[in-house]
# Entry
Amino acid sequence: MAKKGNSHSWNPTNSTRHHTTDAPTTGPKRDPNLGTYDTTNGQETAVLVAVPDKRQPELQTREYLDELEFLAETAGAQVTKRFIQRLDKPDTRTFVGEGKLAEIKAYVNHSRTSMVIFDDELSPSQLRNLEAELKVKIVDRSLLIIDIFARRAKSATARTQVELAQYQYLLPRLTGLWSHLDKQRGGGVSQRGPGETEIETDRRVVRERIDFLKEKLKDFDRQSHTQRKSRGGVIRVALVGYTNVGKSTIMNLLSRSDVFAENKLFATVDSTVRKVVLDNTPFLLSDTVGFIRKLPTRLIESFKSTLDEIREADLLVHVVDISHQSFEEQIAVVNDTLKDIEAADKPMLLVFNKIDQYELDSTALKKDEFEGMNPDEDETPRPTLAQLQATYMAKMHDPVIFISAQERQNIDELRALLTRHVTALHRQRYPNQVGEAYDE
# Structure
């Protein structure tokens, strides 16, 4: 999944033990000199595995796996099969039961799949047991998200934050077969002498690297704090929301900038700040990293300085993808994450985006889409867009607006709403500042 020689894509999925003699794959070939994979030989293929609670609705299970597949595609893998096993709790040894594991193994061997992706975080022992049994690369949800962050990170701060998360994930999963650690290049380099492959040596090297990265992030944090202090006297607005809801597109519309925007998860990892002036009302607008269900705690901890843009904002603009079947659950995920970073009490505008993509009918399950699923017998029809507008405008205390950033629908209304709230906040926060920009 990582391109050879890419200094920004130190891929931890390449850092686990691999057994390739029994099950050849169609995926990339490993370069023993670099400890990385050359993806020019072909796209990696993957199967998805989920172990939902028996009470979880079928439609929700499908949506979760749709998101996992989107993550896999964003990371560069092609999904060929999905496996579901409903259990009261995952198996402590191999996460799935013995019978389901045999099914997965048979498919992997037959199709020459190069990796298996699990929609939960695996324990170190589960990871080792699955690798030993399936003899292909095993990736859990946390590692997949961290890998995507590594691909997306551009600034020195973001690359350091991701590298720290990688090593923190890696530390409890070290084995004694790590001859590649002294050969890994690019982000995530740890220098040590040849032949030092004992697990305690590996742990020492990784711990030293973690300590170094933490100190490096403290320096970045001090620099960022100084930059934020210099912005005093100007209202700060932060775009927040679930990943891939259109924050960067809105940022470009409001600031007339060219922030990278793509229909992929975590298109934005680095925070971007732009000065915006609407009707002679200036403010600073920041585009922040998107949140996601089961966002690894390590990433939240590592991205502290980036998330400070949210913590220190005067106003949050919560962008929601109204076209998504589970947009209300995504709202809850974002609100919970804001609580985790102590930013849930800030003034907030709720912006429902992608109204042009809203569809009344829920998508029916495709026949044989994946193992272990049956369509729900009674799927509740979706309300109309007008009904949703009336409902949310009635029940929300904070302002609500419905737009399409892609089609530029209701963007003028969004600009007017932002202008009113930024002006009011400025007069409240900086009552002694008098200027024509804020005169009525």
In short: The mean pLDDT is 78. The two ends are 55 Å apart (CA to CA).
